[in-house]
Write a structure and sequence with these properties.
This protein is α+β, with helices and mostly antiparallel strands. It has three domains: about 110 residues, Sandwich (Immunoglobulin-like); about 60 residues; about 130 residues. The protein contains ten helices and eight strands. The strands form two sheets. The chain has a four-stranded mixed sheet, covered by helices on one side. It has a four-stranded antiparallel sheet with strand order 3-2-5-6. Helix 2 runs antiparallel to helix 3 and helix 7 packs parallel to helix 9. The longest helix is centred in the middle third of the chain and has 29 residues. The radius of gyration is 26 Å and the shape is flat.
């Protein structure tokens, strides 16, 4: 009898482990007349369709598969207008369900089985409530007497402080969640006061802002390559905070690639992105950045995903461009 019990326990454990593998996301949407739902994910600056399902006999849309979904931010798209709401997918929570309403996708969403998504939507709902209160107070200020405005402005300050406290507590209590990564990414470090002439102060602000630009973003978090904000932040740093000179750009791309390198997929995306960008650049001198990327990353075997024939072709282009660049430098004098 004991052996039978032990066997049943083993079978139950095996079945439970099997059931928790892969992914299964069950969705019910009230007031949605179409029978098809689309799951897509962010990747860099684009979105890609991951799966398409039709409604089942129980009135649910179920995205499921034997493989786990890559962690990141996903979109659930409604036809035909591609209205959508976002879902956070992490490694631990790949089996969950949700209900919402097509007339208010974000406002009426209810999620079971995914703490990260609960945190995410609680945060959005909290911000919406605070924003609504703030807008009401601003309207009061427009028609208020001068003596009343001070008290109303204090109310706005209190709301801002409550939002800051809420966000800080969320990050402190759930530091490894994707929601916390989101909240931190949209939190800028305050600029300190600087002394000097106006020009000196501006320079110090720029240098400080650039040095601390990524303080709240972990570029080695591979989940973030599948998010709507990482590409924007990296491009802003590269295009707006870096002088348009090959030497400065080389320093920047090396810095960025060094930061993302622990995240293999992020490193692959940005090295490929930068290589293509500078290979096709219309700006004079950017071929030097292209040559640098080939020499430092492709010629040394760091681009492990590149096939040998492709690598040889890239190296050949490097040699031709390097010769051309050296010739250009010589003919300038």
């Amino acid at each position: 009898m004991k052996k039978i019990i032990n066997l049943c326990a083993i079978l139950l454990t095996t079945l439970t482990a099997f059931a928790s593998t892969g992914h299964q996301i069950s969705i019910e949407i009230a007031n949605y007349e179409k029978d098809t739902l689309v799951l897509a994910n962010y990747y860099g600056d684009k979105q890609y369709i991951k799966d398409t399902v039709v409604i089942n006999a129980q009135g649910k849309f179920v995205f499921e598969g034997e493989e786990e979904l890559d962690a990141g931010v996903y979109l659930v798209l409604l036809l035909p207008d591609n209205e959508y709401f976002q879902l956070l997918i992490n490694e631990e929570e790949q089996h969950f369900s949700l209900q919402t309403d097509a007339t208010a996708l974000t406002e009426k969403i209810q999620i079971k089985g995914s703490k990260d998504n609960e945190l995410f939507y609680d945060h959005l709902h909290f911000l919406a409530q605070q924003r609504q209160q703030m807008e009401a107070i601003k309207k009061e200020i427009e028609i208020a007497k001068e003596g009343e405005k001070k008290q109303l402005n204090k109310k706005i300050t209190t709301i801002n402080e409550s939002v800051d406290t809420y966000r800080k507590n969320l990050v402190a209590q759930h530091p490894n969640s994707l929601t916390a990564a989101f909240v931190k990414a949209y939190t800028e470090s305050p600029l300190p006061e600087f002394e000097g002439t106006e020009q000196e102060v501006q320079l110090k602000r720029y240098q400080y802002y650039k040095a601390h630009y990524f303080d709240n973003i972990n570029l080695a978090d591979e989940r973030l390559v599948r998010s709507p904000f990482l590409f924007e932040r990296i491009e802003y740093y590269r295009d707006k905070l870096t002088p348009k000179h090959p030497d400065s750009i080389i320093v920047t791309v090396d810095y960025l690639l060094g930061k993302v390198q622990p995240a293999a997929e992020t490193f692959k995306y940005y090295l490929s992105h930068f290589l293509y960008d500078y290979a096709t650049s219309k700006y004079v001198g950017m071929d030097a950045v292209y040559v640098h990327l080939i020499e430092k990353y492709y010629a040394t075997g760091l681009a492990t995903w590149t096939e040998e024939g492709t690598t040889d072709k890239i190296k050949g282009e490097r040699s031709n461009l390097k010769t051309f660049t050296n010739w250009q430098n010589c003919t300038r004098y």
